[in-house]
Write a structure and sequence with these properties.
single chain; about 700 residues; Phosphatidylinositol Transfer Protein Sec14p; 6-stranded antiparallel β-sheet; about 25% strand; immunity; signal transduction inhibitor; CRAL/TRIO_N_dom_sf
Length: about 700
Amino acid sequence: AYERRFPTCPLIPMFVASDTVSEYKSEDEAIHVIERRCKLDIDAPRLLKKIAGVDYVYFVQKNSLNRRERTLHIEAYNETFSNRVIINEHCSYTVHPDNEDWTCFEQSASLDIKSFFGFESTVEKIAMKQYTSNIKKGKEIIEYYLKQLEEEGITFVPRWTPPVTCKSESSTTHTRRPVSPAINIPESATKEGLNNKEILNTSSSPSEPTAGTPDDKLDADYIKRYLGDLTPMQESCLIRLRQWLQETHKGKIPKDEHILRFLRARDFNIDKAREILCQSLTWRKQHQVDYILDTWNPPQVLQDYYAGGWHHHDKDGRPLYVLRLGQMDTKGLVRALGEEALLRYVLSINEEGLRRCEENTKVFGRPISSWTCLVDLEGLNMRHLWRPGVKALLRIIEVVEANYPETLGRLLILRAPRVFPVLWTLVSPFIDDNTRKKFLIYAGNDYQGPGGLLDYIDKEIIPDFLGGECMCEVPEGGLVPKSLYRTAEELENEDIKLWTETIYQSASVFKGAPHEVLIQIVDASSVITWDFDVCKGDIVFNIFHSKRAPQPPKKDSLGAHSITSPGGNNVQLIDKVWQLGRDYSMVESPLICKEGESVQGSHVTRWPGFYILQWKFHNMPACATTNLPRVDDVLASLQVSSHKCKVMYYTEVIGSEDFRGSMTSLESSHSGFSQLSAATTSSSQSHSSSMISR
């Protein structure tokens, strides 16, 4: 039955093909070893595949069948990226030591990620997700082929016998622990397997007792009041895990409600729940999370500009958290505080959520272990897609998912604009499947209709900014003043890197010496995105296209092509002999950017070739009537010492298919958020968009 899944298996969509590398059979046919090279289409974000430069990954699988001992051992390891990631897997089918009519299946694997282009945690999540889904489907696949054999009339395969003499009994000694047959294990415990083991069996047999002894049972009133409905097996798992913690854990023992969250997150598999709970307890101790509400005071900029807060409760009694993400300047908060302070604030919100769940449990007289989050996206735009900000969000999601499982009861996303699919595409692969099922997304004013907000929140507490009558004390957000921004040097000195070493670069722009960045495009319709701050002076931003590559800049520090300075580098790529219109062409209208402005934008490329992003010194225009400079221009020019400007920039190329066809969202730079700015200008063409904010 197992061999029928080769060379490919329709029940495993990711298994594209396989080729036999080597094969060995012993003379007596007792041993059959076959090695295959398997081609897999991993369910990973297309963006990650683009970065890695592969569409498929290859594994080598070695299957060793021993008919004499009645065992099948399967070993697999990755061939692709083997110098960066090491994956080893071992599976075995054996005869049960107590009943030879039963087949035991055991599976184990190890994952060691040395490096993966800065996406180590992402790859780990994808690998674990893929592996878990494969474990769940393993029994289904083998039973599918067993049924197929039965339909073909094959219901019995004679045992192997030696060609000359026949031994009455195998002398093999089995040392494995007895394993209970699957038919007697509760269904909820076999979703991911107990200890990664499953038994394929059609007969029944007494199983190992899973429920605790009468002395270990919890009080029924206590369960109903604080924990909710638990089956005897679930109750037993809770008692056993708590007892293990009491015997082995030296620190503070978490409450039953908290232990239960980790058990539920792993479908009451004790080993898996114990592993993630221990990791979380260690993490809490290292970062003093238990004391965060008492010892940490959020910076004033968070209290003023973080547009989120607690607001009453939903119809189920869950605490309600309101987040006006569309009105929040995520870039400004990260630039002013750094990622660590923002993460710590989110952790304090989660700790407050746990405290409120305990309070509501007492108030409503029933167990409340999760909260509801209402996210208003009115005003969401390209500024929120600032790549370092998105990466900070992904890290926050990762930390929260690992340490606060099963705390989100429901997530209501309201007034989702056109740009939302872009953000969702970037974020959704990192959100647990169980969590994702709790999301309800409403576009426009759909939340006011049937199946909308009134189904989950009482009319009396709907916030005023959503058309309700209840005054909501959540801060309104707005743009964080640039005067509060920290420089890259300050962040580096405080050991808060903010990816400045790898993502943001600083450059100096001189009069007659622009700074230029080369981007090579292989596939047309790719998307060039940029984000930069004009730290000093006024500049003109241009985008050019050329079919031929410019000469690499010279290394001399004072030459015409490259100037180095303490404040940043300066590179010139466009040769002085090149002519505009002949050797290269302008693909966007010039964009004048003033000192202190932040610019985000994108360009959808029409042709392959070489694109050059240019930051050029902006010369002050003279007065039209007198040809004399204006007073304001003279004063402004005096402020720019030595005709020097400075920019901090970040660029990235993304394939348009990674946005699920939502290119219109990339072009959407006009939204309510831009109205928060004192003065906002936008330039938008058919194939590009930019947003400038002062």
